[in-house]
Amino acid sequence: MILRLFSFVALLYALGFALFSVTLGEPAREDAPETAAIVVLTGGKGRIEQAVDRLAAGKAERLLIAGADPVVTEADLVERLGGKDELIACCVDLGSESVDTRSNAEEAHRWIEKHGYRELRLVTSDWHMRRAAYEFRREMGDEVDIIFDAVPTRPGLFTLFGEYNKYVLRRIGVLMGV
Question: Helices 129-140 & 101-115, crossing angle to 10 degrees?
């Protein structure tokens, strides 16, 4: 009986991983509505660039870079992005209060409330989008409409496996009240 239960759980886990791996987040459609804000989560290649491109294209009024290292400055961003100093000076906020996906959502929620926004575009890597979406929905509930705008990547097996485990463990932790 225990072996059957263990086998069932292992099969369920493996099928979940397979499904997770083939249903990664996707970029928002071109015709997706504009939002008041963009929140980008640091930690992956191309995330900040995509968020700034969306801001420059008029997809939102303001951008929060959540989880930025406290030593990063606007001048560092201008240098990294090859200009865009006016856009960064007027419309980009650096958030350095968060250290993980859950605290990214908390930091973004405080920022959203401070500015009175009711919709946002969330930018992160495709392999990270499911967990980020889960945390943002938990934190903001129905009070904020979210458009998910994933940065396409080519994640390796190790990246997918690690992210899947974080996602599963977080879901279990929430169910257990942790």
Answer: 50
When the pLDDT of each residue in the chain is averaged and rounded to a whole number, the result is 94
Q: What is the C-alpha to C-alpha distance for residues 122 and 156, in angstroms, rounded to an integer?
A: 23
Q: Which structural domain range is residue 140 located in?
A: 24-175
User: Residue 39: which CATH number?
Assistant: 3.40.50.620
Q: Answer yes or no: is pLDDT of 85 > 90.
A: no
> How far is residue 168 from each of residues 11, 74, 93, 144, 162, measured CA to CA in Å?
14, 36, 31, 24, 10
Q: Work out the number of other CB atoms within 10 angstroms of the CB of residue 127.
A: 25
Dump pLDDT digits (tens) for 87-103: 999 999 999 999 999 99
pLDDT (0 to 100) of residue 80: 87
